[in-house]
């Protein structure tokens, strides 16, 4: 509890992102990148190469904290995001995953019937099974020393459901979506369980020192709006209703028909991918929420001059001080970190006109 | 030339789909399924099991024709679609592909620089390299004997570009999209070449006996609307301008911001995926185009009763006689063909109220 109280009371050297999330006055736009703590940085690869793999890094608080702080030191971003994975939640619930190089996550066991709900436990102590994340959060804040806020995160219940039922990535997630039609009772039971654990998990992250949290619904876009309301939004809403301690960001990738409903929730910020038209999104979201995004990650492959130009164009398109700058998706691992620096520098030099 | 003239002059027993495409009077909605000639049918699997693999089936006109006709006989669909693959075009241009079981297409060689444009040839005779498709079309029409029209197809240039540069399926197609920023000149040169060959290919299919054609832009949804206009729509438009012989269907999956522009093209029908809201789409498309779609393929996993109910709901949502019924994407291979029959029966029993 010691770290928590220290950092709750502490003033940040740079709290731009918290002010932007709350719609308060900002002198410039805050900027960070999804997957900023990761393979783009040679310094990350150096830490990773000494370990057995991705999971050991996630589960070793000292190393997770180290790579979480790296982009703050090396890139100058306005927030850190704890290095972890959304799949630690299904693992804590009883489904172990492997992260296979160049392929992605893989679960040996999945959930397809009531009997298998024994692999979706809720009656455990979050600290017992995911204590390493909370420990990493505490260590990160110690190392950050209040320079910038630290973002905690979790997958949205629908996306976690996708992995727990499909067992791996998929273009269609047809096994996951099949259950919505063949056994909606099972689907709701599993989604409820994931939601319950996710709320506990986010609260534990906040208690450990996360200053804001983001909920990632990576597979929102594979459902039509009616199904997404029933199996996606309903559970995100339960999470946002439960989290009042810190600003909440919702990023439902591809859910262009559901942005209006997301924006009605108890959240501060809505993430937008690079395919969304900002004018349209602002129109349905209104001015009471901050938007986060949305440079195409591929822009960072272009020349420094073009990165600067396209970043400025993106910034122009938002036309509001309620903007946290980011990419429209995670940064790609083979991007030159110098291009990321140009992106960040361009944002920092941009003059807010609103 | 003999077959062509016979079938051009011939009357169809059932030409519902052609009338629906042209916006003419129809007594009931026509229905077919993307991937109807495929693994859902045991009769297809029986043919396939006697051959070395998918590509041998594609390249053997007698067998391709046989599986093309199967769903007309077995499911009672209102159109046949020639059994083939969009990747025969890059192969004809110089990039051989393999179809790897449970993984998808894989190209040993890709195009990433001007030098490699030698693998994107245009100066060849379509009949020389893709004659097997035209032969399959002729054989199919012989076997159909005018029962229903036959649909020809090709991938849209942007989707073919994705495979020729990325070399395999991808969640992000970041290698393909990188080129749009780093070497737009190369991108346009390659897209122009693909477009040129695609027009020749579609014209050859029509000459051989395709009564309508569909252009599939499977990866439209990974570009923002500005880039999709430059690298996607521009080339689709060249194709539609060149094809005046038969009705044209455009299916740009996920391109929700570009439907308005697609609908302005020289086409009859716009495909809609299951995530698109029909009211919104009809609103931007207007009443001068037919919409094709859009049942969620996963509905076919539910009970017969629910398939019927959800199909009727989908039909209700279109509120227009300008509708060709289909799924919102290809039928999934593990669907029970009896559920497909229920879907088709429900469509055939539905009373048009417009």
Topology overview:
Two copies of one chain form a homodimer.
Chain A: H1 2-9, H2 16-22, H3 42-49, H4 54-59, H5 61-74, E1 80-81, H6 88-93, E2 97-100, E3 104-107, H7 126-144, E4 150-155, H8 157-166, H9 174-182, H10 184-208, E5 212-217, H11 225-242, E6 248-252, H12 259-262, E7 269-271, H13 278-285, E8 290-295, H14 304-318, E9 323-327, H15 337-349
Parallel strand pairs in A: 1-4, 4-5, 5-6, 6-7, 7-8, 8-9
Antiparallel strand pairs in A: 2-3
Helix pairs in contact in A: 5-7, 7-10, 8-9, 8-10, 9-10, 10-11, 14-15
Can you walk me through this structure?
The structure is a homodimer of 354-residue chains. Chain A has helices at 2-9, 16-22, 42-49, 54-59, 61-74, 88-93, 126-144, 157-166, 174-182, 184-208, 225-242, 259-262, 278-285, 304-318, 337-349; strands at residues 80-81, 97-100, 104-107, 150-155, 212-217, 248-252, 269-271, 290-295, 323-327. By secondary structure, chain A is an alpha/beta fold. Chain A has one domain: TIM Barrel, CATH 3.20.20.210. In chain A, α5 runs parallel beside α7 and α10 (184-208) packs parallel to α11 (225-242). The longest helix of chain A is centred in the middle third of the chain and has 25 residues, at 184-208. Chain A is globular and about 55 Å long. In chain A, 53% of the residues are buried. The model of chain A is unreliable at 1-7 (pLDDT under 50).
């Amino acid at each position: 509890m010691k770290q928590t109280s220290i950092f709750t009371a502490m003033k940040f050297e740079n709290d731009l992102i918290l002010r932007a999330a709350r719609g308060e006055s900002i002198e410039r736009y805050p900027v960070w990148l999804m997957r900023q703590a990761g393979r783009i940085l040679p310094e990350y690869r150096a830490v990773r190469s000494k370990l057995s793999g991705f999971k050991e890094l996630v589960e070793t608080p000292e190393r997770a904290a180290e790579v979480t702080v790296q982009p703050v030191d090396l890139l100058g971003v306005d927030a850190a995001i704890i290095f972890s994975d959304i799949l630690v939640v299904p693992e804590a619930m009883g489904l172990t995953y492997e992260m296979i190089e160049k392929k992605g996550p893989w679960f040996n066991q999945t959930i397809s019937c009531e009997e298998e709900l024994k692999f979706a436990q809720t009656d455990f102590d979050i600290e017992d099974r995911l204590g390493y994340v909370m420990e990493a959060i505490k260590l990160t804040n110690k190392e950050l020393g209040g320079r910038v806020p630290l973002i905690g995160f979790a997958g949205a219940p629908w996306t976690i459901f996708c992995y727990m039922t499909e067992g791996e990535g998929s273009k269609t997630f047809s096994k996951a979506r099949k259950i919505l039609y063949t056994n909606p009772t099972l689907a709701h039971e599993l989604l409820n369980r994931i939601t319950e654990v996710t709320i506990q998990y986010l609260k534990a992250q906040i208690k450990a020192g996360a200053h804001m949290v983001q909920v990632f619904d990576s597979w929102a876009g594979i459902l039509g709006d009616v199904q997404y309301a029933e199996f996606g939004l309903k559970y995100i809403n339960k999470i946002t209703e439960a989290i009042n301690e810190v600003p909440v960001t919702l990023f439902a990738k591809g859910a262009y028909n559901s942005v209006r409903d997301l924006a009605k929730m108890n959240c501060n910020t809505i993430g937008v991918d690079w395919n969304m038209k900002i004018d349209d999104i602002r129109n349905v979201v209104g001015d009471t929420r901050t938007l986060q995004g949305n440079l195409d990650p591929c822009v960072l492959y272009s020349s420094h001059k073009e990165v600067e130009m396209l970043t400025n164009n993106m910034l122009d398109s938002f036309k509001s001080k309620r903007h946290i700058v980011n990419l429209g998706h995670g940064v790609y691992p083979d991007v030159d970190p110098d291009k990321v620096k140009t992106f960040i520098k361009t944002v920092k030099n941009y003059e807010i006109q609103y």
